[in-house]
Amino acid sequence: MKKKYYRVLTIAGSDSGGGAGIQADIKTISAMGCYAASAITAVTVQNTIGVQAVHPVPLDILEGQMDAVLSDIGADAVKIGMLHSAEVVRLVADKLEQYGIKQVVLDPVMVSTSGHRLMEEDAVAVLKSRLMPLARVITPNVPEAEILAGCTITSERDFDAIARQLSANGGVSVLLKAGHLDGDELVDYFYNAEDGTITRLPSRRIYTRNTHGTGCTLSSAFAAALARGEDLTCAAKSAKKFIEQAIFSGAEYELGGGHGPVNHGFGPLAMLS
């Protein structure tokens, strides 16, 4: 009997510095024991200090990448990251519907760690109306959740109402990340829309500059866990554990003059199913 890979397609931008975007996704998916395929939405000129330029990939090339992967290799899960324009959001949504993809983890990337805007303003509304209802899970950080929900988050006490509000858009589950809040303890909040359960995911804050690509890494780990057959809540816990260990194991490394990456290769899993 032939062996099969757990397959994950990542649809995101390329980070020339290797810490975030497609590069972080592929490292994470591989470390989680899955086969990574990719469709690049944009090429960024980027390093640990910041994003210097963004070059969108033509729509026909993006569509071709998705068709090439999904018509031949297929995907057990899809992770979506940087989608810079409304046209790109619509195209990705159309393709998910065309191929009947249900295991979708959407990381609504809007601003880079260095503060560079990565999504045009008019794309946000299209993401909410077209793409969020197709996702199984979204993984916003606090600023992203504030934009999507149209309100301000001041503490963890706001998480329940915000998660439920976001979930009302198509019944998507929500992993709300607490990294932008103050305090030594970080409590990410997972609302499983499929069974109505709430899971708090606490961890100690790791004080390090090496946090570039944490959101990409977490969402990719979530997609990989789903591809491996974990249920939603278990996959959320696996993703949280992966990013926590990746940050911890990379905290003392020095790379570049800005925000360095996490250590994706701290303990890779077997790839074959």
Written description of the protein model:
The protein is an alpha/beta fold. The protein has one domain: Ribokinase (UDP-N-acetylmuramoyl-L-alanine:D-glutamate ligase). 37% of the residues lie in helices and 21% in strands. A nine-stranded mixed β-sheet has the order 3-2-1-4-5-6-7-8-9, sandwiched between helices. Helix 2 (59-72) runs parallel beside helix 3 (86-99) and helix 7 (214-227) packs across helix 8 (232-250). The longest helix is centred in the last third of the chain and has 19 residues, at 232-250. The chain is globular. The protein starts with 6 loop residues before the first strand and ends in a 23-residue tail after the last helix. The model has no long low-confidence stretch (mean pLDDT 92).
Strand count, sense and barrel status of the largest sheet are: 9 strands, mixed
Outline the low-pLDDT stretches.
none
Mean pLDDT: 92
Global outline: globular
Q: Can you write the helix and strand succession as a string?
A: EHEEHEHEHEHHEEEHH
Which CATH top level class fits? Alpha Beta
Strand content: 15-25%
Helical run tally:
8
* DSSP strand count: 9
Task: Output the radius of gyration.
Answer: 17 Å
Number of domains: 1
Helix content: 25-40%
The separation of the N and C termini measures 12 Å
CATH-level-4 superfamily name: Ribokinase
